[in-house]
Amino acid sequence: MDVRNGIFLPPEGITVTGAGTLPAAFDVSGFAVAAMGEAATAIARLARHHGGARADISIDRDLASLWFGLSFTPVGWELPPIWDAIAGDYQCADGWIRLHTNAPHHRAAAVKVLGLGADANRATVAAVVEHWNGQELEDAVVAAQGCAAVMRSPEQWRDHAQGRAVAGEPLIAWGSARAYDAGTSARVRLASAGRPLAGVRVLDLTRVIAGPVATRFLAMYGAQVLRIDPPDWEEPVLEAEMTLGKHCARLDLKSPEGFARLHELLAGADILIHGYRPDALENLGFSDEELALRYPQLVNIALDAYGWSGPWANRRGFDSLVQMSCGIASSGMTEFGASKPFPLPVQALDHATGYLCAAAAVDAWRESLGGSVRTARLSLARTAVELVLTRPSDPAAPAPVLGTFTQIPEETRWGPGLRLPAAIRISGLEPFTDVPARGFGWALPAWP
Fold first, then answer.
1. SS in 3 state form for 183-230?
2. What GO molecular-function term can you cite, just one (predicted)?
3. Cα 215 from chain centroid?
């Protein structure tokens, strides 16, 4: 990603239309265009590999900004609340802290540390948190396997051991190449210049936003995406958003039967995209080395929150927490004169990392067709390093307006809705999927 004079430049050869700008302490709309541009360029390279002509690529800046929010609007019904009732920012004795409690087990960890019961609400949480030292509370919640982050300034993050570690990592960390002949696969022969990922099997072991964004993008260009979730995983606000184009199944990986089925799926997969932290990978027996040994054909793309080195490499995290940790929420508070943490207007770290993840997967797949298989690792915190190099948005710039665009009617299992048109245009390719958004667990844990 190319940052010059405090703004992102799109990859070379991409035409940008529109002028919409999300108001933020950093160049978020440029970030959206740049990240989408990387994914689009990777798809165009793959199409050329399959005999296509050099493609013209354009990205609508307004649409790119809007896709970094929610692409789907329900008609005649409502999505559930985005956040759990006690998730959010709280003032502590020496600053601010964010509690992420959307998952039931993360909520349980937070209320247990605070000495509250299951009936805790924002008022009761705030009354307890205000007496805590922020760092002590963050440490206690994390130790209880919950999710929390104190607000740090950019300077504090740069001086922090994890901030230094992440700054030293590459944006996309590529592993060593290994030889493998994928050219004889029947699935490979399904691909064409107009549908460059047709027949490619993608096993999606990600949740929340970044990984699902990546696999949704791959599905639009023909990939067969199989998403696996635990038996009890629920994420209702994002089901219509992130299950588009995917067969979604459930597996209990803690059971011998579920674990055995997962290995069967890996044996038939071309690309694995997962969001397991390094220690979780090791515990599952899914180290890069083990996967390469058992499944030499597999392109393995991994992403996490806080990076792959440093003392927080195994820490749970989400976009909103990384924004608190790395100085983004603090910068917004200063830029807009706010009295509390002021995050980005969208979950930009998630979305940008998702498109970069898709770009890495496509490039790695293209290289595997030539006999060389590689792994790649990305993280939200490392993606944030690029964003904080930029300057605040121009306050006079026009904001993207949803009503400017003709949205596409879409039927889901919850009811009708409207989907944004594509922000990316690649000549000779039409992004589409025949698999509607159906939510979690509707498919069998088997390749279609």
1. CCCCCHHHCCCCCCCCCCEEEEECCCCHHHHHHHHHHHCCCEEEEEEC
2. transferase activity
3. 9
Of 314, 306, 368, 359, the closest CA to residue 164 belongs to 306
Residue located via tokens 């430049």? 9
Q: Report the DSSP beta bridge partners of residue 201.
A: 224
pLDDT per position as a tens digit, 84-128:
999 999 999 999 999 999 999 999 999 999 999 999 999 999 999
CB 345 within 8 A of CB 23: yes
- How many whole angstroms separate alpha carbon 101 and alpha carbon 84? 6
Q: Is the pLDDT of residue 226 over 90?
A: yes
Nearest CA to 39 among 301, 320, 353, 284?
353
- Quickly tell me which residue has 């088997």 as its tokens: 446
Task: Report residue 260: phi and psi, to 5°.
Answer: -65, -40
Angle (CA) 391-305-349 rounded to 5° is: 30
Alpha-carbon dihedral sign for residues 161, 214, 189, 447: positive
